[in-house]
Amino acid sequence: MDNEGSMAIAIIGYIIALISPIIGLVYGAALFFLKKDVALYQKHGKLIIVFSIVVFVVSLIVRMVFF
Predict the structure, then answer these.
(1) Is 55 helix (H, G, I), strand (E, B) or coil?
(2) Which of 3, 35, 37, 63 is most buried, with most CB under 10 Å away?
(3) Angle at the Cα of 47 from the Cα atoms of 30 and 32, rounded to 5 degrees
């Protein structure tokens, strides 16, 4: 298990990005840039970054429309 990674780390990242996009962005960047030796973390780090940006933009649009 030296280069496999854990899927639980990625799932936690998606949950964090859904709850707080800014913290999710930092979490995804940490996975992407600090865990370069694990391909699973590279892939999901990039996806968490994109997911947190999408959640942030959608939340801004919802706030502008409804409030």
Answers:
(1) helix
(2) 35
(3) 25
The DSSP letter of residue 3 is S
Residues 41 and 31: beta-carbon distance below 8 Å:
yes
DSSP track, 11-38 = HHHHHHHHH-HHHHHHHHHHHHHH-TT-
Selection from 40, 42, 43, 48 nearest residue 12 by Cα: 48
Residue in 12, 33, 35, 40 with CA at minimum distance from that of residue 24: 12
Mean pLDDT along residues 50-56: 97
- What pTM did the predictor assign? 0.89
